[in-house]
Specification:
By secondary structure, the chain is mostly helical. The protein contains five helices and no strands. The protein has one domain.
């Protein structure tokens, strides 16, 4: 599972950098016209931060050797992955296409991200010294 989370992080990291560059250059006029530059930047920031969290989960799973609850770590990784896709994805769509209903979907992704952080903390709390 460690390998899977590292691969997911690599793909999301690539996509995050590409979208950030695309938004800063090719989409700049459109984002400004929609008054959605801040929305796009928020999507990209959360995208990249949680990509690093997913990478961290992959690294922890590969190195923990039983000191951390791998089940909690896996579920944290799943929630970070789903949360990143739903939260940032809905904000990207809102910013680029100005589809306002997407703003109502973003909080669901945010809840998944919060759940991921809670499970990561719980895995640390339950760790074997």
């Amino acid at each position: 599972m460690a390998r899977t989370f590292i691969l997911i992080a690599a793909m999301l990291g690539f996509l995050g950098v590409a979208l950030g560059a695309f938004g800063a250059h090719a989409l700049q006029a459109r984002l400004e016209a929609n008054d959605r530059v801040d929305t796009f930047q928020t999507a990209n920031r959360y995208h990249l931060i949680h990509t690093l969290a997913i990478l961290g989960i992959g690294i922890l799973l590969s190195l923990s050797s039983g000191t951390l609850d791998s089940s909690l770590l896996r579920w944290a990784g799943y929630l970070f992955t789903v949360g990143t896709i739903v939260f940032s994805g809905s904000l990207y769509v809102l910013a680029i296409f100005n589809i306002r209903i997407m703003g109502a979907i973003a909080p669901l992704g945010g809840l998944a991200l919060l759940g991921g952080w809670l499970l990561l903390g719980l895995a640390g709390w339950r760790s074997v010294p």
